[in-house]
Design goal:
- It is a single chain.
- This protein has one domain.
- It has 1 helix and 18 strands.
- The radius of gyration is 21 Å and the shape is globular.
- Strands 3, 4, 6, 7, 9, 10, 12, 15, 16, 17 and 18 form an 11-stranded mixed β-sheet that branches.
- With 277 residues, it is mainly β.
- β3 and β4 form a beta hairpin.
- Required for maturation of urease via the functional incorporation of the urease nickel metallocenter.
- It is found in: Cytoplasm.
- Keywords: Chaperone, Cytoplasm, Nickel insertion.
- UreD, UreF and UreG form a complex that acts as a GTP-hydrolysis-dependent molecular chaperone, activating the urease apoprotein by helping to assemble the nickel containing metallocenter of UreC. The UreE protein probably delivers the nickel.
Length: 277
């Protein structure tokens, strides 16, 4: 038997809890044909503001109340569009991911639920991944069979004159309980080949636009290419195996990326949900 002198044993210390843990919640409900917001609960860095409605659509702006996400932060937004509602979510400014007090990654999870005959538009400002940042971002979307969705996500890899931070993203979309889209991407230090010709090819801005619309069941938009001269902006719009289209774009900077995605969005047919003609 070997005896251990506890006085000489190495001290085991648990890492202190570092970072902000916060969840913001938004719920849109139908009240006589007008979308209302019975739940608008900000938390941590998320301050939620009602914007002026547009027709029957409720609009919410997400305002950053503090610097976030930083290393170790655990951030989450939950938004639900109940049956027959229209909800538009945006942000007041770009989200800036920064190095934190710990090497642990920050997480930023977005969960969207859209019920029958409801429409949700997730159109925030871009994410900027500053040098030294480490972020894991995810979107999980659950759609009813007759739900509509417009989702835009943009990443700017590094501020002007600095290298990119690290960001890993995951997008999962389920429609009527079945997976419509599941994909992952990773950029920045430690991500194999992220800046090579098969991925970003030297570009520092990338983004996607996903449009889900039951009207695409019988008439999906065709494959389309968008872009300028070689080395500038490029995007491809492709139909998915379901009533949806996905555009993926790269550009030298965030301004040209947004313009390109706006051009793509204008090329996608829009349908009007029943009851909102």
């Amino acid at each position: 038997m070997t005896l251990t002198d506890e006085r000489n044993a190495p001290e085991v210390r648990e890492d202190p809890v570092v970072g902000v843990h916060a969840t913001a919640r938004i719920t849109a409900a139908d009240r006589g044909g007008v979308t209302t917001l019975p739940v608008l609960d900000g938390d941590g860095p998320f301050e939620l503001r009602r914007l002026r409605a547009r027709g029957t659509e409720a609009r919410v702006c997400i305002i950053g109340a503090m610097s976030a996400p930083l290393g170790g932060d655990r951030l989450r937004i939950e938004a639900t569009a109940q049956q027959g509602t229209a909800l538009h979510l945006t942000s007041a400014a770009a989200t800036l991911a920064l190095r934190g007090a710990t090497s642990a990654p920050a997480t930023y999870d977005v969960h969207l639920t859209v019920a029958d005959r409801a429409e949700l538009r997730w159109l925030p400002k871009p994410l900027i991944c500053a040098a030294g940042s480490n972020l894991r971002q995810s979107w999980t979307v659950d759609l009813a069979a007759t739900a509509r969705l417009v989702l835009r996500e943009e990443q700017i890899l590094g501020r002007t004159g600095e290298p990119s931070g690290h960001v890993a993203t995951r997008l999962t979309v389920r429609r009527a309980g079945r997976t419509l889209l599941a994909q992952e991407a990773e950029y920045g230090p430690g991500a194999p080949g992220w800046d090579g010709p098969a991925v970003l090819a030297g570009h520092r801005a990338t983004g996607q636009l996903l449009v889900v619309d039951p009207a695409f069941e019988n008439a999906p938009p065709p494959v389309q290419l968008f872009g300028d001269a070689p080395g500038d902006c490029h995007a491809v719009l492709t139909p998915l195996a379901g009533p949806a289209v996905l555009a993926t774009a790269v550009a030298p900077d965030g301004l040209r990326l947004r313009r390109l995605l706006d051009t793509v969005r204008a090329a996608v047919p829009r349908s009007v949900p029943a009851g909102r003609q």
